Amino acid sequence: MIDLPIYDSSGKKIDSLKIDEQTLGGEIRHALLKQAYVITHGNQRQGSARSKSRGDIEGSTRKLFKQKGTGNARAGAVRTPIRKGGGAAFKKTRTREDFRHDLPKKMRRLANRNALLAKLVDNEVKCFAALDFKAPKTSEFAKMMASVGIDRTCLVATNKSNQNAMLSARNVAGVDVCRIDQLNVFSMLNHRYLVVDKAALMSFLDETCYAGSEGDDAPAAAPAKTAAATTAKTPKAPKAKKEAV
Fold this sequence. Notes:
The protein is an alpha/beta fold. The chain contains eight helices and six strands; from the N terminus they run ββααβαβαβαβααα. It has a six-stranded mixed beta sheet.
């Protein structure tokens, strides 16, 4: 069991939280963390790098000087690849390169929880009882970070409803903010410290933080039909046949 201290806004330890390592993977899986990190990093690549050949470069095609008699090496146009500012010898011809790779869902979730375990083992998780701010105040947030000894890069994860904490932290140098349901291995490993509040951390551990995010993407219910549209049409009475004379 990991004993995680809980701090108040002044940096004083007021409680502790016991976390079972088995819920976070049991042990730190370095190969899995690296695989998830590399895939997430590669998925962010735009893949739109381009280069120009000598035919795409703007410039004259005139021969710089005559072929013989000058003592210089033979030279053609200024756009040749061997000259500064010339085109590339083998330009990139693809319109777009795709560097995206998929990671299985179970591996991705295990990597996210295993990254949190690595932070807990290294004492790099600072958990507060609550991140309550009456109004967005950057100076108050900076004092909270200094009270628990945060002197390097920091990632703040909290519930999406805690807007005052997000606005208070976003202007601090070296501090990034994310929602607790968007916490991932790439963002955790890119920062030295992780700052969370107790309620957000508990929701991440028991996976209740994902319930609201899935509901937001649910399609809206179809509008109810009006009573006029649902009423059945009464069949018309058949016309009487004319009797033959």
